């Protein structure tokens, strides 16, 4: 928990609201997945729920459920302002998520799985049981309902995939 929080701290150094919201998430995630004893878990979960309402929902104006699985160094440049992340969503390491983004289920089919180093633009909606690969860019205001492969961008409503032409490193022997 503390290792992940330290990476979150470094990624969001200038925003104390975001740091408090991410600490609340990391604490709740630790209680949900790691604390097994009911005697200890119940009061810690109650503490988490109080912190969630105060710091995440009221102060930071977002939803960041403890059940979600989020990798290290989550960067929220504009804070949690309007961001909603579903309880069953999975987000990789070093993701950047701008404000007013929704990452959630669609028609009770499942939630998104997002790879490492994803860049999710302002107001985007990522919905349903889809997979976003590593190093993807999601354009502002896009609605993503289909898989996005590694090293691709998705833009539009509904989003279209645009593969990026990245130069491949030459093998030197």
Automatic annotation (TrEMBL):
Keywords: Acyltransferase, Repeat, Transferase
EC number of the protein: 2.3.1.30
Enzyme class: transferase
MF terms in GO: serine O-acetyltransferase activity
Gene3D superfamilies from the UniProt entry: Hexapeptide repeat proteins
Keyword Acyltransferase (UniProt): yes
Family: Belongs to the transferase hexapeptide repeat family.
Protein name: Serine acetyltransferase
Taxonomic placement: Bacteria, Bacillati, Bacillota, Bacilli, Bacillales
